[in-house]
């Protein structure tokens, strides 16, 4: 038997609100009958009923939580569905990792959809745990849970017509699954060529102008509001929107009063997070983004549609709308202004009652994916015969993924090149962790550590172990702690040591969001205590291994010049 | 080599206008580059560039023109694509008729898409020329030109789970082609059940309330602006929209200023014509509807989107948008206020230069589909022994498809029941024309003819020959003229005779829109001269044979009580 109640429904199909009697049975909306409200009408539900929110592009691994633990925190914020691209675990464990994600996701009452990671590994200049070729992609696209081909980051290969890349795109079209894009700053004729492949979405727009060009060329724009990349500020910027409309006005084609109504239009299609760490996630998810959009003078109902009906329609999900016959995923909020999530329902069942989440996440017995031997301090030394040496150095900047290529003159002691805290030059290394036991060492400027070392098994995209430190001894200690923990994050100094184990693929914890967030907080404070000047040192460090973003990076195979796309020596002649 | 020019583009993706350099090559937009406009910038195209318009639901046969002749007049009004449901010819000629439409359509530079007619024949209580079963539907759905399953009018069978009907719906889903609906006044639980079959569109809404219910249940609403049904007045009605918003306001959930912006929202999805006769068609098509919508305070750009990007997205057409890589179907208008179509381009080629249409329609050598022998006046008599007789009578009303069941007392002469102009009771007959040579005779009230007869081989949906007249002699003359003409419309009286031959399936002419329209005009004037009180006598007469619309109708098999869904005798007792 179903349950029946009256409520005000926010209808994303007509941009309106109406009171209705709703019957939910077998997890679906069995009947929705509009009612008229007079003085003595009792509306059972206090607040407003909305479809549950959908994050159309997220890498769940970035939260360091298992899908099940992620779901536990997401439902608190009104999220009922996500399309996750298991790109990170795919780089570590391939198909097996993706199947773990699907399996773990199915253990909780939450809608996890997946995209097939299209670019594993990111480059051939690093050792990754897996490679997904077109036959793997076909295997994934056949799965019901897989609703899209994941972000096609490898746009140079799309433009060059690389056979395997083109085959993956063809397969997505063949299986009728939309293709997600990822093409930062791609423009003009190159963008046209990229779009010939029916790549439809983009979540990498960082300027209003970039987003408008892509939108005008037919892309659906995902406005990203994540932990690292926050593009809502640019894409919803009031001044830019006004300027854009003023420019329209000067053509004299669209009547001014029509343009004035456009001021509150979001113009773009979805709001997504892409990456959201646990610290941010416990504070909010798309609910926070909607509120922020409204503060930026976006029509709040249009903002809600960007995380409900819009993604549901694009990806063909049974979600995002309250209609008879649809899956009964819905939330109750207090009102459109305060926007507090009072309750969350999935398939008609309450999963968050305003206080507690009403399901559990299973503990995972993960197998060890850190296949490397313990390290000695010597493994982190660079040897040089002489008193002083000039080295190519990565220069990094707070909150940026881009680095610069610089040089530094460093002293040598006992044949080993020393770090130099006066110049803020530290040692950096990537420790291969898939069984080949190689280490690449180099130098980095900008992290600010005065002593100790920080290390992590999260290092995009191949997730070898990355470590930055003042000296080899502490670097070895930090890395060995991670090896002991079967993955994770570690801080080591003469005075203190601590770590967050991430035993699941070296990417995810078995703990809940609060535990992970508070441990991460402690580790960040320790890094600061060691002198670190970077706001999110582990995240920034993780991107020092991402070779596709300029200018100088490091993989387990060596120091890499991203502009020339080739390895370079650490020591200059 | 392509052509290159500058123009202001109305961009339906961002609801905006921008100046750009456009290169068209091989029929597609090869490159579109936004340009900045300063004082000395020359914009080559005077006026505004829009995507060509799409009529997402039309029965081309209603224009009495071949697809090719239809295209010739449609391009004058900025239409570049139609989705036509060849339901009429399918009732006459089955698959062969649909293939003729597809073939004829391909002879002109115009985008004809088709839906597979789902309900042929309309009922089993009439003789039709064909029956399309589920295997025929599958044959059609496999064709590239067929983009949807045509309007599912047989909603009682959908609700009852009729095996063949359900199979047709399953096939559409299997082939991934959207299903068009047709469910006038269907509401509540019955509507819910109809929608379970993934029937998505409806073009039959006659009231704002009906349309809102269907929209809230997830249907896409086609606002119909045709020759007979004109629903724009109700669905875009300013007062009703305001009332709807005021009602919203009383809930106090959506801020008033947000509601105020909604005043100009069309709420619904597409504008279509369904049926458009030649007389109307030569005056305008969707261009006229857009202008009318704007006069009803609908945001004109949103109205344009209802006939461009919206239908293109829903049916997956390469149309409706000006983006790189898309088919170069576009039009030039003078401005958004006057909305005159200056030029029309299809696949980059000019097909209407503001004065002339730049392609020809082929002459069709149609085979005769009127398979019946010449009639004698006696065939149109109803015999009765007695002086006076009470008969069941169809009562019809101007501009309505609905009829009422009434009775009349009529005099008899030489054993034949006579019409009675004092009571406005005329004779009506349906002459079977598929080779079985049967005739059904009855009486009709409301047409007003004082003498003569009018006849037509357009009689929904089976298109037997229908005739209304003062006496049997004139009825026979009118019907025989149609038989001579291999189909068409005819007027016969003691003083004058004239006809419009429709030799193609008895539905379409070989002539152009102007010729057909002016001949139709003459025949209507003749009918008026004979006393006819009905505005569009041939159209109204055509619906007297449509058994699915209440209350009393006539097929070639007899007088039909649509409410009881059974035949009744003409003579009472």
Features:
homodimer, 573 residues, 26% strand, alpha/beta, 8-stranded parallel beta sheet, 17 helices, 9-stranded mixed beta sheet
Derived structural class of chain A: alpha/beta
Oligomer: homodimer
Span of the ends, CA to CA of chain A: 79 Å
How many β-strands of chain A, per DSSP? 27
Provide the low-confidence segments of chain A as ranges.
none
Q: How does the overall form of chain A come out from the CA principal axes?
A: globular
Helix percent band of chain A:
25-40%
What is the arithmetic mean of pLDDT of chain A?
96
Give me the number of helical elements of chain A.
Answer: 17
Largest sheet of chain A: 9 strands, mixed
Radius of gyration of chain A: 25 Å
Largest interface: A-B, 51 and 51 residues
**Order of strands across the main sheet of chain A:** 18-17-16-20-19-22-21-23-24
Strand content of chain A: 25-35%
């Amino acid at each position: 038997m179903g349950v029946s109640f009256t409520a005000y429904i926010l209808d994303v199909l007509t941009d309106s609100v109406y009171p209705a009697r709703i019957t939910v049975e077998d997890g679906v909306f069995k009947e929705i009958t509009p009612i008229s409200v007079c003085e003595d009408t009792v509306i059972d539900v206090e607040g407003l009923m909305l479809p549950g929110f959908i994050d159309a592009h997220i890498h769940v691994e970035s939260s360091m939580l298992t899908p099940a633990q992620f779901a536990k925190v997401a439902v608190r914020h009104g999220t009922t569905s996500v399309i996750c691209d298991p790109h990170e675990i795919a780089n570590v464990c391939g198909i097996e990792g993706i199947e773990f994600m699907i399996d773990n996701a199915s253990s909780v009452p939450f809608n996890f959809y997946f995209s097939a990671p299209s670019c594993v590994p990111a480059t051939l200049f690093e050792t990754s745990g897996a490679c997904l070729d077109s036959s793997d992609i076909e295997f994934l696209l056949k799965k019901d849970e897989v609703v899209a081909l994941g972000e096609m980051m490898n746009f140079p290969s799309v433009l060059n017509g690389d056979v395997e890349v083109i085959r993956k795109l063809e397969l997505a079209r063949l299986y009728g699954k939309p293709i997600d894009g990822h093409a930062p700053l791609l423009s003009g004729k190159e963008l046209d060529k990229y779009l010939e492949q029916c790549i439809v979405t983009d979540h990498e727009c960082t300027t209003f102008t970039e987003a408008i060009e892509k939108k005008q060329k037919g892309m659906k724009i995902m406005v990203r509001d994540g932990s690292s990349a926050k593009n809502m500020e640019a894409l919803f910027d009031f001044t830019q929107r006004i300027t854009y409309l003023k420019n329209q006005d000067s053509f004299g084609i669209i009547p001014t009063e029509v343009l004035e109504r456009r001021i509150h239009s979001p113009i773009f299609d979805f709001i997504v997070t892409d990456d959201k760490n646990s610290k941010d996630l416990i504070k909010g998810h798309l609910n926070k983004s909607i509120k922020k959009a409204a503060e930026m003078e976006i029509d709040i109902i249009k903002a809600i549609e960007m995380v409900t009906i819009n993604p549901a329609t694009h990806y063909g999900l049974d979600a995002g709308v309250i209609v008879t016959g649809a899956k009964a995923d819905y939330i109750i909020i207090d009102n459109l202004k305060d926007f507090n999530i009072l309750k969350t329902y999935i398939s008609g069942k309450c999963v968050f009652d305003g206080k507690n989440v009403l399901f559990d996440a299973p503990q995972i017995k993960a197998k060890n994916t850190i296949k490397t031997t313990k390290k000695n301090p010597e493994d982190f030394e660079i040897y040089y015969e002489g008193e002083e040496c000039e080295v190519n150095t990565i220069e990094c900047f707070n909150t940026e993924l881009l680095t610069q290529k610089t040089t530094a003159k460093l002293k040598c002691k006992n044949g080993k090149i020393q770090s130099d805290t006066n110049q803020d030059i530290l040692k950096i290394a990537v420790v291969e962790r898939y069984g080949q036991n190689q280490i690449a060492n180099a130098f980095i400027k900008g992290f600010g550590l005065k002593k100790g070392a920080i290390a992590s098994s999260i290092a995009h995209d191949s997730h070898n172990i990355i470590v930055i430190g003042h000296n080899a001894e502490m670097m070895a200690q930090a890395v060995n702690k991670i090896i002991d923990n079967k993955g994770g994050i570690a801080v080591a100094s003469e005075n203190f040591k601590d770590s967050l184990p991430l035993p699941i693929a070296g990417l995810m914890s078995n703990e809940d969001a609060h535990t992970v967030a508070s441990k991460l907080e402690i580790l960040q404070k320790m890094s600061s205590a060691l002198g670190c000047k970077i706001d999110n040192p582990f995240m920034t460090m993780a991107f020092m291994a991402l070779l596709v973003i300029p200018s100088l990076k490091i993989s387990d195979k060596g120091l890499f010049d991203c502009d020339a796309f080739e390895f370079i020596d650490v020591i200059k002649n």
